[in-house]
Amino acid sequence: MLYVALMKIIEGKNNEALAKRLQWQIPEGMNVVAQYWLGTPDPNVIIIFETDSKASMMQFQGDWNDYFAITIVPAITAEEGMEMAKGMMG
Predict the structure, then answer these.
(1) Is the pLDDT of residue 90 over 90?
(2) Helix%, strand%, coil% for the chain, nearest 5
(3) Is residue 45 a contact partner of residue 7, using CB atoms and an 8 Å limit?
(4) CATH code of the domain made up of 2-89
(5) Which class for 64: exposed (0-12), middle (13-18), buried (19 or more C-beta within 10 A)?
């Protein structure tokens, strides 16, 4: 399943988060599709990932909870959304 993690840096943790990112390993069972570190106050980081493993998602959150407030939401691609819309319309 596809998810988007919206991450807001905890005040004063920016340098620590950057240092952690240099060493961080993606949890097993999690496929990162895209990752963006933004120049906005909220969110600061967006990570788009695929997983069917709740354990890998929990590990991801545990890895970053000290540095970011994290919201994870399920997502679909534009193509999947268009197919769903076609089904609803006709």
Answers:
(1) no
(2) 35, 35, 30
(3) yes
(4) 3.30.70.1060
(5) buried
Beta bridge partners of residue 73, listed in sequence order: 4
pLDDT value of position 84 = 86
* Pairing mode of beta strands 68-75, 2-9: antiparallel
The two structure tokens encoding residue 76 = 């679909």
Per-domain boundaries in the chain: 2-89
Query: Can you tell me which residue has the tokens 């709740």?
Result: 54
Q: Which residue has the tokens 């905890």?
A: 10
Residue 33, pLDDT score? 97
Tokens 């679909």, residue located: 76
- Please say if the pLDDT value at position 70 is more than 80: yes
Angle between helix 54-64 and helix 14-23 axes, rounded to 10 deg: 140
